[in-house]
Amino acid sequence: MEDQYLTQVTEEGVDAFSRERLQAYYVDNPALAQTPLRALRTAEGLIDVSASASLVFAASSLEITLRDVILRPLLHGLVHNEALASYVAQCAVERQGTKSSNRLLVALLQEYAGVDLSTYCREGQRVTLWDEVGRATKLRNDVVHRGEEVTNDDVRTALDVSTVLLHEIFPAVAQALDLTVDEDLNIGGGEPTQE
Question: How many structural domains comprise the chain?
Protein backbone atom coordinates (compact mmCIF):
# COMPACT_ATOMS: atom_id res chain seq x y z
CA MET A 1 0.00 0.00 0.00
CA GLU A 2 2.88 2.35 0.81
CA ASP A 3 4.48 1.60 -2.59
CA GLN A 4 1.16 2.32 -4.30
CA TYR A 5 0.87 5.62 -2.47
CA LEU A 6 4.46 6.63 -3.33
CA THR A 7 3.89 5.73 -6.98
CA GLN A 8 0.70 7.81 -7.08
CA VAL A 9 2.33 10.80 -5.37
CA THR A 10 5.32 10.58 -7.74
CA GLU A 11 3.08 10.43 -10.81
CA GLU A 12 1.02 13.37 -9.58
CA GLY A 13 4.18 15.39 -8.92
CA VAL A 14 5.57 14.66 -12.38
CA ASP A 15 2.21 15.52 -13.97
CA ALA A 16 2.04 18.82 -12.06
CA PHE A 17 5.62 19.70 -13.01
CA SER A 18 4.95 18.85 -16.67
CA ARG A 19 1.75 20.90 -16.71
CA GLU A 20 3.53 23.89 -15.15
CA ARG A 21 6.33 23.65 -17.75
CA LEU A 22 3.78 23.53 -20.59
CA GLN A 23 1.95 26.54 -19.14
CA ALA A 24 5.12 28.54 -18.42
CA TYR A 25 5.60 30.31 -21.76
CA TYR A 26 1.93 31.23 -21.96
CA VAL A 27 1.88 32.49 -18.36
CA ASP A 28 5.04 34.55 -18.95
CA ASN A 29 3.65 35.95 -22.25
CA PRO A 30 -0.09 36.40 -21.74
CA ALA A 31 -0.50 38.75 -24.72
CA LEU A 32 1.42 36.69 -27.28
CA ALA A 33 -1.64 36.37 -29.54
CA GLN A 34 -1.88 40.14 -29.97
CA THR A 35 0.60 40.28 -32.86
CA PRO A 36 -1.26 37.83 -35.12
CA LEU A 37 -4.56 39.37 -34.03
CA ARG A 38 -3.35 42.80 -35.20
CA ALA A 39 -2.25 41.28 -38.51
CA LEU A 40 -5.67 39.64 -38.91
CA ARG A 41 -7.46 42.92 -38.17
CA THR A 42 -5.23 44.71 -40.68
CA ALA A 43 -6.04 42.05 -43.27
CA GLU A 44 -9.77 42.51 -42.61
CA GLY A 45 -9.41 46.27 -43.02
CA LEU A 46 -7.57 45.94 -46.32
CA ILE A 47 -9.87 43.50 -48.10
CA ASP A 48 -11.81 46.24 -49.91
CA VAL A 49 -8.65 48.26 -50.62
CA SER A 50 -6.30 45.55 -51.91
CA ALA A 51 -6.96 41.82 -52.02
CA SER A 52 -3.23 41.15 -52.35
CA ALA A 53 -2.30 43.26 -49.32
CA SER A 54 -5.11 41.70 -47.32
CA LEU A 55 -3.91 38.20 -48.18
CA VAL A 56 -0.34 39.03 -47.15
CA PHE A 57 -1.52 40.11 -43.70
CA ALA A 58 -3.93 37.16 -43.34
CA ALA A 59 -1.20 34.67 -44.22
CA SER A 60 1.20 36.44 -41.87
CA SER A 61 -1.38 36.15 -39.10
CA LEU A 62 -1.83 32.43 -39.56
CA GLU A 63 1.93 31.78 -39.76
CA ILE A 64 2.62 33.85 -36.64
CA THR A 65 -0.17 32.02 -34.83
CA LEU A 66 1.23 28.62 -35.75
CA ARG A 67 4.84 29.56 -35.01
CA ASP A 68 4.68 31.93 -32.03
CA VAL A 69 1.34 31.19 -30.38
CA ILE A 70 1.27 27.40 -30.69
CA LEU A 71 4.59 25.79 -31.68
CA ARG A 72 7.10 27.90 -29.72
CA PRO A 73 5.22 27.80 -26.37
CA LEU A 74 4.63 24.04 -26.54
CA LEU A 75 8.24 23.29 -27.46
CA HIS A 76 9.44 25.63 -24.73
CA GLY A 77 7.32 23.72 -22.25
CA LEU A 78 8.61 20.32 -23.31
CA VAL A 79 12.20 21.24 -22.43
CA HIS A 80 12.53 20.91 -18.68
CA ASN A 81 15.78 22.85 -18.46
CA GLU A 82 14.75 26.53 -18.46
CA ALA A 83 18.14 27.69 -19.69
CA LEU A 84 17.81 25.52 -22.82
CA ALA A 85 14.07 25.83 -23.40
CA SER A 86 14.21 29.11 -25.31
CA TYR A 87 17.15 27.94 -27.41
CA VAL A 88 15.52 24.63 -28.38
CA ALA A 89 12.21 26.33 -29.19
CA GLN A 90 14.00 28.97 -31.29
CA CYS A 91 15.94 26.35 -33.24
CA ALA A 92 12.74 24.46 -33.99
CA VAL A 93 10.69 27.46 -35.09
CA GLU A 94 13.51 28.62 -37.37
CA ARG A 95 12.80 25.43 -39.32
CA GLN A 96 9.07 26.17 -39.55
CA GLY A 97 7.69 25.17 -42.90
CA THR A 98 9.99 22.17 -43.25
CA LYS A 99 8.42 18.72 -43.33
CA SER A 100 9.90 17.74 -39.97
CA SER A 101 8.74 20.97 -38.32
CA ASN A 102 5.28 20.58 -39.82
CA ARG A 103 5.03 17.00 -38.54
CA LEU A 104 6.12 18.21 -35.11
CA LEU A 105 3.45 20.92 -35.07
CA VAL A 106 0.77 18.44 -36.15
CA ALA A 107 1.89 15.95 -33.47
CA LEU A 108 1.96 18.61 -30.73
CA LEU A 109 -1.54 19.83 -31.56
CA GLN A 110 -2.82 16.26 -31.59
CA GLU A 111 -1.18 15.48 -28.25
CA TYR A 112 -1.99 18.67 -26.34
CA ALA A 113 -5.23 19.91 -27.86
CA GLY A 114 -6.72 16.82 -29.48
CA VAL A 115 -6.71 18.62 -32.85
CA ASP A 116 -5.50 16.65 -35.85
CA LEU A 117 -4.57 19.20 -38.49
CA SER A 118 -4.22 16.44 -41.07
CA THR A 119 -7.96 15.72 -40.86
CA TYR A 120 -9.47 18.87 -39.28
CA CYS A 121 -11.73 20.78 -41.65
CA ARG A 122 -13.46 24.06 -41.10
CA GLU A 123 -17.23 23.79 -40.96
CA GLY A 124 -18.65 23.29 -44.44
CA GLN A 125 -15.24 22.61 -46.03
CA ARG A 126 -13.86 19.41 -47.53
CA VAL A 127 -10.26 20.61 -47.61
CA THR A 128 -8.30 20.21 -44.38
CA LEU A 129 -7.29 23.31 -42.43
CA TRP A 130 -3.66 22.27 -42.88
CA ASP A 131 -4.08 22.25 -46.69
CA GLU A 132 -5.74 25.67 -46.48
CA VAL A 133 -2.77 26.97 -44.45
CA GLY A 134 -0.43 25.69 -47.15
CA ARG A 135 -2.47 27.29 -49.92
CA ALA A 136 -2.64 30.67 -48.14
CA THR A 137 1.12 30.58 -47.56
CA LYS A 138 1.78 29.74 -51.21
CA LEU A 139 -0.51 32.54 -52.38
CA ARG A 140 1.22 34.99 -50.04
CA ASN A 141 4.60 33.96 -51.47
CA ASP A 142 3.24 34.37 -55.01
CA VAL A 143 2.03 37.89 -54.18
CA VAL A 144 5.24 38.96 -52.44
CA HIS A 145 7.80 37.29 -54.69
CA ARG A 146 6.07 37.27 -58.08
CA GLY A 147 3.59 40.13 -57.90
CA GLU A 148 0.68 37.76 -58.53
CA GLU A 149 -2.92 38.85 -58.00
CA VAL A 150 -5.38 37.00 -55.78
CA THR A 151 -9.14 36.86 -55.68
CA ASN A 152 -11.44 38.01 -52.89
CA ASP A 153 -12.34 34.32 -52.40
CA ASP A 154 -8.65 33.53 -51.78
CA VAL A 155 -8.50 36.34 -49.23
CA ARG A 156 -11.71 35.31 -47.47
CA THR A 157 -10.41 31.76 -47.14
CA ALA A 158 -7.10 33.00 -45.67
CA LEU A 159 -9.02 35.27 -43.27
CA ASP A 160 -11.27 32.39 -42.20
CA VAL A 161 -8.31 30.06 -41.68
CA SER A 162 -6.46 32.65 -39.60
CA THR A 163 -9.62 33.28 -37.57
CA VAL A 164 -10.04 29.55 -36.85
CA LEU A 165 -6.42 29.25 -35.75
CA LEU A 166 -6.65 32.25 -33.42
CA HIS A 167 -10.17 31.82 -32.08
CA GLU A 168 -10.59 28.03 -32.05
CA ILE A 169 -7.29 26.14 -32.20
CA PHE A 170 -5.26 28.44 -29.90
CA PRO A 171 -8.00 28.50 -27.22
CA ALA A 172 -8.23 24.69 -27.46
CA VAL A 173 -4.51 24.44 -26.70
CA ALA A 174 -4.85 26.86 -23.78
CA GLN A 175 -7.87 25.01 -22.41
CA ALA A 176 -6.03 21.68 -22.64
CA LEU A 177 -3.31 23.24 -20.48
CA ASP A 178 -5.85 24.52 -17.93
CA LEU A 179 -5.43 28.12 -19.06
CA THR A 180 -8.09 30.57 -20.16
CA VAL A 181 -8.23 32.89 -23.14
CA ASP A 182 -10.38 36.00 -22.90
CA GLU A 183 -12.31 37.66 -25.73
CA ASP A 184 -9.21 39.75 -26.56
CA LEU A 185 -7.10 36.55 -26.79
CA ASN A 186 -5.13 37.28 -23.62
CA ILE A 187 -4.13 34.25 -21.58
CA GLY A 188 -5.19 33.76 -17.98
CA GLY A 189 -4.08 31.24 -15.41
CA GLY A 190 -7.19 29.12 -15.38
CA GLU A 191 -9.23 31.49 -13.27
CA PRO A 192 -12.39 32.81 -14.91
CA THR A 193 -11.84 36.38 -16.05
CA GLN A 194 -13.82 39.15 -14.36
CA GLU A 195 -15.87 41.47 -16.57
Answer: 1
